[in-house]
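Model it.
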Amino acid sequence: MKTLHLNMVTQRAVEEGEAMEAGKTTQKYFDVCTVVEMNADDIREMGISPNTVVKVTSECGEVFVKAIIARQTCPRGLCHIRQGVWANQVVPPRTQSTGEPQYSGFPVTIEPAPDARIVPAVELVQKACNKWNGQLLWPM
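Modeled.
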């Protein structure tokens, strides 16, 4: 299995919007937002199958999600992650004086992590805020 260096773009998706209506702590939202869409050739180059858990790392953090073949145009060297809790773990906070973080066009490293656990939204937020003590602060 091989590590790749790609360019990340976060995005909105119809599936994400539909799942958000059900709630950000639902299984549906988890299923549609814990993915990184990649070019099929990049997935093959990594030596993994679609739906394998991978670790996505940027200059400011890391997150575990499933690698899937992109459902839209995605040239080699580019990957998409849906905006939300999981994407926010790797989005650089730089704003270039716009007031918005750099949601698109930043480098990431993606490596296979087939035995890793994808963390649910509430736990991920609590960990990001240093509030994780092994149990949820509010129910899901």
